[in-house]
Design brief:
- The structure is a single chain.
- The protein has 542 residues and is of the alpha/beta class.
- Among the domains are: 176 residues, Rossmann fold (3-Layer(aba) Sandwich), CATH 3.40.50.12780; 95 residues, GMP Synthetase, Chain A, domain 3 (2-Layer Sandwich), CATH 3.30.300.30.
- Helices cover 28% and strands 24% of the residues.
- The chain contains 16 helices and 25 strands.
- The mean pLDDT is 94.
- Bound molecules: adenosine monophosphate.
- The site of adenosine monophosphate (AMP) has 21 residues, from strand 14, strand 19 and strand 20.
Length: 542
């Protein structure tokens, strides 16, 4: 017997329809590439998203055709999020931090037919447009009078002129909720990048679960600042869950430095901000230098790489902001776990609570996890056993776009490439990426643990731990360190700092001072590049 409930497709267009109707006056504030602050409402976003849909119809773009963006976080990008996917096309957010050759390769692989870009990225588009063989229409996200005359890009349109001549009269179509809605290529640390292709259904379920109180806890009373780029896994789904809840959206545009982010949080009374640790590192340094305090920020979700304990302490103890440590992947839309405490943790001492907060957190509803040993046998949830982490759920990929690399699944589970423990309460903790774990004398050393200790030293701005070949121990850890401006710490001082904080064998053998740690397009440390930089390095006793 079937249930007797109405059957409606879960479609992204319903989010903007809802926001327009129920939170029409809800604000969307953006720092623009032009430098000014732009203010509009969900009602405006809805109207202009419908103009985008009409403009795409005008170009005769078919169902599922790819519309690419090279854009910062801002209202125009948000309009494209809804206008492109809502009308049945696929939004392809290109990562402008990649090398132009790679961007061109990705655009061709995705078979993008339209590219909408912020003027910041004009030099990239100029360099690659002739090589993007499938793109027929180039749209610059500017007013008509700001469009430069001789860019060499054929038929370049101004976004404002393009959508300005369209009516906002448009009926969002209904179609199968399993249709593709957007796509995002993975950082591609090995081989060519591969794309996760999200569906309307997966995006909607992800936004619903992500908004729950024990996940990101989004509400109409929030002012949300996604510092995490809209070109990186849909800004962790925040544009969708904000529309779903009517939360005010605040977009930083291209100004990602500590000062600009802090000022935006203050001026727009932001209550909730989301970003990777490197961004917060810059903002905390700015606040520390100026002895500044937040007046409205209540919580921040930090993910993308492990959040160092020193950062949790700074946010929590110094600035009174709750840190939600979160973990996920491009292949997971991206939310997998969020670290929120349970009742049993509340009476704990600050040190015990910190141990919990450092974990990547509990699986949110919809994400199932398990850890397995080298033979694929499931390991216990005891907080000690660690193994390869596998996941499954309705917003986790089943295969990559165009079937690239064959099925990534193992018995229906997606192997994340992360190594983790899971405790009896279901809190997962990443110890490493499988390829970053260091094996010394048969014992595993977590590079994250080694980095976290260095990061707690007041003179250290950033630290990356890698394993170096060792004749006796197989591998030994060394730590590459960038010091804070005007601060100094010697090799011996830093190694001494480890004493009593970790087992002796986990103390790195050496410290290498570097000007910068190589970062990838999404702000993650690129250990392969660091290894390349240090290829002539020899351990002191090797
Ligand atoms: P991406 O697909 O570029 O978002 O990268 C996903 C990978 O980032 C994961 O598989 C993890 O290795 C890493 N990652 C994401 N969040 C965290 C976190 N909170 N702690 C440690 N590693 C993380």
């Amino acid at each position: 017997m079937l249930g007797l409930m109405q059957s409606h497709q879960l479609l992204i267009s319903s989010l903007i329809e809802f926001a327009e109707r129920h939170h029409g006056e809800g604000e969307v504030v953006s720092r623009r590439v032009e430098g000014d602050i732009h203010r509009c409402t969900y009602k405006d976003v809805g109207q202009r998203a419908r103009q985008v849909a009409n403009a795409l119809d005008d170009l005769k773009l078919g169902f599922s055709e790819r519309v690419a963006t090279l854009a910062w976080n801002g209202y125009r990008h948000l309009e494209l999020y809804f206008g492109v996917s809502g009308s049945g096309r696929v939004l392809h957010t290109l990562n402008p931090r990649l090398h132009p050759d790679q961007i061109a390769w990705i655009a061709n692989h995705a078979e993008d037919t339209v590219l909408c870009f912020d003027m910041t990225f004009l030099p990239i588009v100029k360099a690659i447009h002739s090589r993007c063989t499938t793109i027929k229409h180039f749209v610059a996200l500017v007013d008509a009078d700001k469009l430069p005359a001789d860019t060499g890009i054929p038929g370049l349109l101004s976004y404002e002129a393009w959508i300005g001549k369209q009516s906002s009269n448009y009926q969002w179509p209904s179609f199968d909720e399993n249709s593709a809605s957007s796509m995002c290529y993975t950082s591609g640390t090995t081989g060519n990048p591969k794309a996760a292709l999200y569906s309307h259904r997966s995006t909607m379920l992800h936004a619903l679960s992500g908004a729950l109180p024990d996940a990101l806890s989004m509400s109409a009373r929030d002012a949300v600042l996604p510092v995490v780029p809209m070109f990186h896994v849909n800004a962790w789904g925040l544009p969708y869950s904000a529309a779903m809840t009517g939360a005010k959206l605040v977009f930083p545009g291209p100004a990602m430095d500590g000062k600009s982010i802090f000022e935006l949080i203050e001026s727009e009374r932001v209550t909730f901000a989301a970003g990777v640790p490197t961004v917060w590192q810059m903002m905390l340094a700015h606040m520390q230098a100026g002895d500044l305090r937040f007046s409205t920020l209540k919580r921040t979700v930090i993910g993308g790489s492990a959040c160092p304990p020193a950062m949790i302490t700074a946010f929590n103890d110094v600035y009174g902001v709750e840190v939600l440590h979160a973990w996920g992947m491009t292949e997971m839309s991206p939310l997998g776990t969020v670290c929120t405490l349970k009742n049993k943790h509340l009476p704990m001492t600050p040190e015990e609570k910190m141990k919990v907060r450092l974990k990547q957190g509990r699986g949110i509803f919809g994400v199932d996890m398990k850890i397995v040993d080298d033979e694929g046998h499931e390991l216990p949830w005891d907080g000690k056993a660690y193994g390869d982490l596998l996941v499954k759920g309705p917003w986790i990929i089943s295969e990559y776009f165009k079937g690239e690399g064959g099925s990534p699944l193992v018995d229906g589970w997606f192997p994340t490439g992360d190594v983790a423990t899971i405790d009896a309460d279901g809190y997962m903790q990443i110890t490493d990426r499988s390829k970053d774990v260091i094996k010394s004398g048969g014992e595993w050393i977590s590079s994250i643990d080694v980095e976290n200790i260095a990061m707690a030293h007041p003179a250290v701005a950033m630290a990356a731990c890698i394993g170096m070949k060792h004749p006796k121990w197989d591998e030994r850890p060394i730590i590459a360190v960038v010091t804070k401006p005007g601060c100094e710490v010697s090799r011996d001082e830093l190694l001494k700092f480890y004493e009593g904080k970790t087992a002796k064998f986990q103390i790195p053998d050496d410290v290498v001072f570097v000007d910068a740690i190589p970062l990838g397009g999404t702000g993650k440390m690129q250990k392969s590049k660091l290894r390349e930089l240090l290829k002539d390095y020899k351990l002191p006793d090797a």
